[in-house]
Amino acid sequence: MIFNDVKHVLIVGLGLLGGSYAKALKKKGIAVDAITLEQSSIDYALAHGIIDTGTTQINAEIVSRADLVVFALYPHIFVEWIRNHGHLLRPGQVVTDVTGVKESIVYEVQALLPEGVEYIAAHPMAGREVGGVENSDDSIFHGANYIVVPTEKNTTNAIWLCTELGYALGFADVSCLDPKKHDEMIGFLSQLTHCIAVSLMCTCDDPNMKRYTGDSFRDLTRIANINDEMWSELFLANQQTLLEQMEAYRCRFDRLYECIKEGDREGMREMMRLSTARRQLFDKKV
Fold it and tell me: What is the tens place of the pLDDT at every residue in 241-253?
């Protein structure tokens, strides 16, 4: 199956990302169904034209008629759903996801699926500090990165389908990593940065600090407004890799600490020059 063959998509979990996927796919003329826990989310999505149909029940008909099923759930809930309801998926369907960790779930999900159903993992590197379908917005994908995460069990067609899905959603760059490398990169680029932001916000308890802060502090701590339920699960699901990244960061922070303590201005400047050179790679060229 290629993306042009996808006429019907089921989204399981209609929150921020699930709703944003639905909005983007509807613009492509694709019929979108949804299964989610809260009836209020279904009602909102129907009233705003985000989905075509929706239910809070596991509906065999809705599951079986989808060409592509997108799971926008917490990792452990995704695995539980497949374990309990995966038998409803039919041969020929392709399953993908949005979960932020891969190695701890991808192989288990692939093993649980019925014969003829293919799961190709993906990770949209986009989001907001607020959740819920009412905050969904497919513009968050524009200019963002999307990672396809195949294993040796995936077919070339499924990898291409998932790649095409990323571009259809509006992502600017689609890359491909195996589950281990994905978790290593996410441990550094996403999870470590959230650890730093949380730690920084927990360092000072001055109730008036918001009156004195500037853009640098606001920018650095934007992601400290965090979903503690989701991120604590992600941290533990990628525990060893994240701890390694935290240790590497601690070594560099200690190096800067020692430079400042010893008055080693050249050491500081050397780190700053390296930092500037690497950060400039991220700056978008106009």
Answer: 999 999 999 999 9
Residue 286: what pLDDT?
45
Residues 140, 127: contact at Cβ < 8 Å?
yes
Phi, psi of 107, rounded to the nearest 5 degrees? -70, -35
Locate 103 and state its tokens: 């190695």
A 10 A CB-CB count for 135 gives 14
Cα 45 from chain centroid (whole Å): 21
Question: What are phi and psi for residue 69, nearest 5 degrees?
Answer: -115, 125
Length of the chain: 286
CA 59 → CA 33, 35, 109, 132, 238, distances in Å? 11, 8, 20, 22, 32
- CB-based contacts of 198: which residues, under 8 Å, 6+ apart? 224, 226
- The lowest-confidence range among 146-150, 172-176, 181-185, 208-212 is 208-212
Burial bucket for residue 85 (CB in 10 Å: 0-12, 13-18, 19+):
middle
Q: For residue 284, name the pLDDT band (cuts at 50, 70, 90).
A: low
Asked if residues 19 and 46 have their Cβ atoms less than 8 Å apart, the reply is: no
